[in-house]
Amino acid sequence: MIEPVHLQIRFADIDSMGHVNNAVYLSYFEYTRVYYFKAMLPPNWDWVSNGIILAHTEVSYLKPLLLNDDATVQMLIGEIGTKSFTLHYIIRVNDKIITKGASTLVCYDSKMQRSIGIPTEMKNSFTKLESV
Questions:
Q1: DSSP letter, residue 98
Q2: Where are the domains of the chain?
Q3: What are phi and psi of 11, to 5 degrees?
Q4: pTM
Q5: CA 74, CA 123: separation in Å to the nearest integer?
Q6: Of 9, 19, 101, 117, which is least surrounded by CB within 10 A?
Q7: CA-to-CA distance for 90 and 121, rounded, in angstroms?
Q8: Of 60, 57, 56, which Cα lies nearest the Cα of 97?
Q9: pLDDT 10s digits, 29-76
């Protein structure tokens, strides 16, 4: 299992209500994906030929996330198709769930400008994630 990401909540993330702005959560999810994929795939992974693009994302804001919160993000694997897969995110503060989210990603070859099947090595790396 991969350790959850520890978030550094920046002052710029906070809106006039005093909590993390809704749009910032997408950046947190993106940061989480990068963190987990670094732990799952080799450092020389060819992201141009074996990349991913974001097709859909959703966020459920359950409780506000504040500047001084000690927050972590866990990423889990959901549905796995032939060309796409779904990742789920859970943001916690003091073991309490603050936010949940999900992203559907499509494997994509940027050189050929087309979707591709999930590369075998990437698909095998999903075993390092907990399932939803």
A1: E
A2: 5-128
A3: -60, -35
A4: 0.96
A5: 19
A6: 117
A7: 25
A8: 60
A9: 999 999 999 999 999 999 999 999 999 999 999 999 999 999 999 999
